[in-house]
Design goal:
By secondary structure, the protein is α/β, with parallel strands linked by helices. It has 3 domains: about 1-130, no CATH class; about 155-255, no CATH class; about 265-490, no CATH class. About 60% of the residues lie in helices and about 10% in strands. It has helices at about 1-10, 10-25, 35-100, 105-130, 155-160, 170-175, 180-195, 205-220, 225-230, 235-255, 260-275, 300, 305-310, 345-350, 350-360, 390-415, 430-445, 475-490; strands spanning about 135, 140, 280-290, 315-325, 330-340, 365-370, 380. The strands form 2 sheets. Strands 5-4-3-6-7 form a 5-stranded mixed β-sheet, sandwiched between helices. α3 runs antiparallel to α4, α8 crosses α10 (about 235-255) and α10 (about 235-255) crosses α17 (about 430-445). The longest helix is centred in the N-terminal third of the chain and has 63 residues, at about 35-100. It is elongated and about 135 Å long. It starts with a helix and ends in a 9-residue tail after the last helix. Belongs to the HARBI1 family. Its cofactor is a divalent metal cation. InterPro entries: HARBI1-like, HARBI1_dom. Pfam families: DDE_Tnp_4.
Length: about 500
Amino acid sequence: MKAAVFRNEAGDDEEEEEEESVCNVFDGDVETTPSHDTKNNLKGFFTSLLLMEEHEKQDQEARSAASRRELSELQSNYRKRARTMSEYYSDLNAHYEENGDIKTKKPRASRASRAVACVSAAATECSEMESSEITGSGSIGTGQQRRLWVKDRSRAWWEECNRSDYPEEDFKKAFRMSKSTFELICDELNAAVAKEDTALRNAIPVRQRVAVCIWRLATGEPLRLVSKKFGLGISTCHKLVLEVCKAIKDVLMPKYLQWPDDESLRSIRETYEAMSGIPNVVGSMYTTHVPIIAPKISVAAYFNKRHTERNQKTSYSITIQAVVNPRGVFTDLCIGWPGSMSDDKVLEKSLLYQRANNGGLLKGLWVVGGAGHPLLDWVLVPYTQQNLTWTQHAFNEKMSEVQRVAKEAFGRLKGRWACLQKRTEVKLQDLPTVLGACCVLHNICEMRGEKMERELMVEVVDDEVLPENALRSVSAMKARDAISHNLLHHGLAGTSFL
């Protein structure tokens, strides 16, 4: 093509002269070299070739520069898309977590779940494409490296709380316990919750893991606020709460929540007798309800009719039954039975009932129950019939003093761990673990003498329904009458007939 262009520019006459000179050379004529005009034409030909090559080189460099600019813009767009999609996915996920499980409302929830999945996949793809190293003129280099994109979140609040000079009063207000108790819990759980650093990211420290869980239980705030406080993702905070609660249940519960030994039982009996005048009492038993979101299965079983009628608001709940010693420490727990069950039915389902009836755990001892519990060989309850005698009324007053120990313990439990006062975001199958962790942390605080502000105290109100068969032991009826007469005639009920 270049030669053709040159010939067009030089003209036909010059081409004929060149052919003649070549023929003259081969014919042996005297003229053996090209003419002066032919030399100039050849010089012009090579000059044109050099110019065209220079132009092509410049065009190639321009195209390379444009390609690099386009590649840079493409990478920038991918980064923006990755950030935007990730933020949108986090906000969408937080919205549905705050308003319950995503699958609760079927038509709308299915569309929302598909949208969340699509956004998550797109964000992942963009992050992966962003992590590729592009070298040269758009080709993928051999030194590819994958990196994990992490949203930059502020941890200023937690870093402030974690300082050694952070005020004790402010720390206790945030976590419902002193720094020394918090340190004790961290040391106890260190082996169970500690994680190792990976190539992608550094592990979250044990102190921060425990702090996320305790602050969530203490405040009952939604996970999106926990995320902002500690500079972690919402799903990460939810996972940490469940992991630490499980560690508390597995590691700390056997140590801080157990049935008293013989020496401790003797001390408990003496304390309760000095308080009420009733002998052989080793615990005060009470059953309370914790509100939950309506479950997807067995909704009627968790429907709390009494709370619904009293509050004029549909309520669902699960139960916590506990036996409490004079210090307000739980010595036995039964957690997780549906809120529609009465107190006597919950008692029959408990391990304490089986151990006492079949194993002789409480032979000759009493656990003081409420009006919703039946009178058994080992469960002492107040008189519930109409028109009580003075003796029976005085006995009920003494029983109420023992019952008050359990009620106040539950008031401190719900006041210290505010998550028990509102419907939680935790799934129903994980809820017993979370409630058990709250009870264990309550015991630790009570044993270590952690004082709680009076404004945090919660007045426990649970409607006790009389059992269908309230009197199930003749010997227990006689023993209760004997105790009542003893309280009255020995001046222990506040009156003496001497």
